[in-house]
Amino acid sequence: MRKNKIPKEESLLSPQKTFSELYQILWERRQIILQKLDTGLDTPEETADKGGDMADIAQDASENELSFHLAEVESRELDKIDAALDKLAEGTYGICESCGKQIAVARLKALPFANKCIQCQEQDEQEGKFTVASSVSYWEK
């Protein structure tokens, strides 16, 4: 007796449709990051011009420093997104930069700007190699 198997989601989508969906996700995320980075940060002079007592100034400076660090992380993520979009245009998207094998669709759906397959990424992490892709958390939709 033959059992009916439900096909996995990846097998229901053509590679072109999957890459098209991933392109849209990457492009939308890129726009969100650019918008956030465009809002800018206060300069120390602007923080001081806001007035208030020393506690207010210190809190504003602390918040500005946190914003700077978040902008730095988002800037690195933007670089990865741009690299992924370039690869889509070149036809090399989804190919591991280390071993040259295809990156699993499930991994690309989880981290659309992944540049390594899970095996090579795990090997790099075990060897203590640190990459930007592993340092940036995937965003929530």
What does this structure look like?
- With 141 residues, the chain is mainly α.
- The chain has one domain (14-135): Four Helix Bundle (Hemerythrin (Met), subunit A) (Up-down Bundle), CATH 1.20.120.
- 64% of the residues lie in helices and 0% in strands.
- The chain is built from seven helices and no strands.
- α2 runs antiparallel to α4 (54-90).
- The relative contact order is 0.12.
CATH top level is: Mainly Alpha
Termini gap: 43 Å
**Percent range for β-strand residues:** under 5%
**Architecture per CATH nomenclature, i.e. the level-2 architecture:** Up-down Bundle
CATH domain fold name: Four Helix Bundle (Hemerythrin (Met), subunit A)
Order of secondary-structure elements: HHHHHHH
Oligomeric composition of the shown chains: single chain
CATH homolog superfamily: DksA, coiled-coil domain
Helix content: 55-70%
Figure out the total of helices.
7
Tally of DSSP β-strands: 0
Global Rg: 20 Å
Q: How many separate domains make up the residues?
A: 1
Low-confidence parts: 1-13, 132-141
Shape: elongated
Describe what is shown at a glance.
This protein is mainly alpha-helical and 141 residues long. The protein has helices at residues 9-12, 15-38, 44-49, 54-90, 105-110, 118-126, 132-135.
